[in-house]
Write a structure and sequence with these properties.
GO molecular function, one term: (3R)-hydroxyacyl-[acyl-carrier-protein] dehydratase activity
Helix content: 10-25%
Protein name: UPF0336 protein ABEG17_11705
Radius of gyration: 17 Å
Number of strands: 5
Largest sheet: 5 strands, antiparallel
InterPro entries: FAS1-like_DH_region, HadA-like, HotDog_dom_sf, UPF0336/Enoyl-CoA_hydratase
Order of helices and strands: EHHHEEEE
Strand content: 35-45%
Family: Belongs to the UPF0336 family.
Pfam families: FAS1_DH_region
């Protein structure tokens, strides 16, 4: 089954909220090798002008991929997850994600195109606080490998 190109332009209802904790940010910072204390120390983050510990820039992917799952798991989308390869990820940060944030993610399917027997799907996820403050725009491209 091919990816349903009729999904281009579809926006899913917001998913979440996803709670951001200082512990989760510190664990992510450790996993990606970040040693900047603003990711692990409330004191360091406050001294740098933030309300609390802030996320490393790539932390946004942990929330954005949960939002992507809504589309990927939609049976009408025609995606066989066993054939998915992550192709590209981009972020535009509007303000740092911080401990204490409650994040919503709104996913839009921007494009579906065929390339060499595969499908290339680009999605955009707008991450906001539950109060509507813009945090990050995450753009992801996945490749759904074609048949053998």
């Amino acid at each position: 089954m091919a990816v349903n190109a009729d999904f281009v332009g579809r926006t899913y209802p917001p998913s979440g909220p996803y709670a951001v904790s200082a512990e989760g940010l510190a664990a992510f910072a450790s996993a990606v090798g970040s040693t900047d204390p603003v990711h692990t120390s409330s004191e360091a983050a406050r001294a740098a002008g933030y309300a609390d510990v802030i996320a490393p820039p790539t932390f946004a992917v942990t929330i954005a991929q949960q939002c992507d799952a809504v589309f990927v798991q939609d049976p009408e989308a025609g995606i066989d997850y066993s054939r998915v390869v992550h192709g590209e990820q981009r972020f535009v940060h509007h303000r740092p994600i911080a401990a204490g944030d409650e994040v919503l993610g709104t996913l839009t399917v921007d494009s579906v195109r065929a390339a060499g027997g595969h499908s290339m799907v680009t999605t955009r996820t707008e991450l906001t606080t539950t109060d509507g403050e813009a945090l990050c725009t995450s753009t992801s491209t996945i490749v759904i490998r074609g048949g053998e």
